[in-house]
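User: What would this chain look like folded?
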Amino acid sequence: MQDLNYRIEQKISISTELPGPNSAKLLERRNAALPTSVSAVLPGFVVDGDGGILVDADGNQFCDLASGIAVTSAGASNPRVVKAVQDAAARFTHSAFMISPYESYVELAEKLNKLTPGDHDKRTVLMNSGAEAVENAVKIARHYTKKTGVAVFDYAFHGRTNLTMAMTAKENPYKAGFGPFAGDVHRVPMSYPLRDGLAGAKAAERAIAELEKVGAENLACVVIEPLQGEGGFIVPAEGFLPRIVDWCRANDVVFIADEIQAGIMRTGTWFASEHEGIVPDLVTMAKGIGNGMPISAVTGRAEIMNAPQPGGIGGTYGGNPVACAAALATLEEMEAEKLGERATEIGKIIREELAEITEHPRVAEIRGRGAMVAVEFVDAEGNPDKELTGAIVQAVQSEGVLALSCGQDGNVIRFLPALVIPEALLREGLQAIVRAFNKLV
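Assistant: Here's the prediction, encoded as structure tokens.
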């Protein structure tokens, strides 16, 4: 994999105890100023970042296998994005589009209308966060269908607002103590080949049977992550997604693809939906689209998107001009540097480096697409092993590697490196994972 140009030397370097003295002082300030409910993984406070490296307040350099949860896909300080942000901010930092519009919002909408799956007439609305995009997609679907029910899947994660918490499956830490939640949300079985052993068609039949219990006449939409994120990077069995789409089409139910974590070249294509050729009615996106600037979008069929009354969809900061500039630059960078191809290469490298542990009985599965790959760990009896997973994450931090866990049972390590990470650094970070696993088992 060809290296790109980097501002910071792309190597791991830990020169202090963790956290170092400067980060320790910041940690004291943090504990005095922030609630304990706002937690963090990395033991150092970040002051700089580039390529696949994060630098903390003590000069320690970490290999970043998280990229802000699949956000800084083009690098934490990508020059093209930085320049676009600087230029936009120098002109004006905000002008609510619904009050005084500007071209960058329109240009980004045009771009997303072209990039999302399908050649039908589309419209796009811009928001701030993934959860806000999901909420608005549901609002639009309800208005269009004149129905209220929302179907979601086991292991799903859709956000932390009241409605999206109701749609999210994982109780702790995301939902515990925060109810009651929005109603008319119905959960149906997800295709999870490792655990259910079902082929796509059979898994779809099981899910559709539950959808029909709710009744198509009551359902405004079905919302699904084509490749689940927080739920454990679950890749549904082949054929599952097309069958769900067909059922929605036949029953006048809006099919919404939540591409917030898996979209924007993360899996090697612009959208994970493309891997099985499905065409969603609505697509939600965020994270990688702005490369760190807060922006999200809902793109979909024109007749559905046009259903709400004028003024019915909007928000003060939605499609902020600086964030729009960042998003346009990010999309340009991905095309110029062929980051989709790099995502595919990254996926191959991850599997190569993890091959040593693939057949170990404590490794249940290595799965994913492109640069969105995960390892699921189990104990000697084959049960989810959260403790081993957490121990590996902690162990590699001391070696200067930032990795994240996920999964309904907390027993999955997910790899979300920046798509611009150099190959040598990526391999070094993955080798630390293998070493930690071998020591701990």
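The mean pLDDT is 97. If you want, I can go into more detail on any region.
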